[in-house]
Amino acid sequence: MDPKPIINAPRDGTYILVYHTTHGWVEAHFCPGAWFNTQEGREYDGPVWVIGDSIVQEEVEETPEGFHDGPITHWMTTPGKP
After folding, report:
1. By the 8 A CB rule, do 58 and 48 touch?
2. CA torsion sign, 73 to 8 to 46 to 28?
3. pLDDT tens digits for 33-62?
4. Is 37 helix (H, G, I), strand (E, B) or coil?
5. Domain residue limits, the chain
């Protein structure tokens, strides 16, 4: 399998393998940011990569130029899945 830069990763909730500079290759999926109503008003919870079964969540910085994925650098499809 050939790792690809994370900038090209699917961001639709598909489970993929990602390379995390601390944890190595782990299964993860992208979760886009969302607005929530709280007692204080509406708050925005930004996008994250959810690693494993929510073992770790890595925040993703959204900018006009695109996403900055922090310690996640590469991705590839999960073995046995298209």
Report:
1. yes
2. negative
3. 888 888 888 877 788 898 987 667 888 887
4. strand
5. 4-77
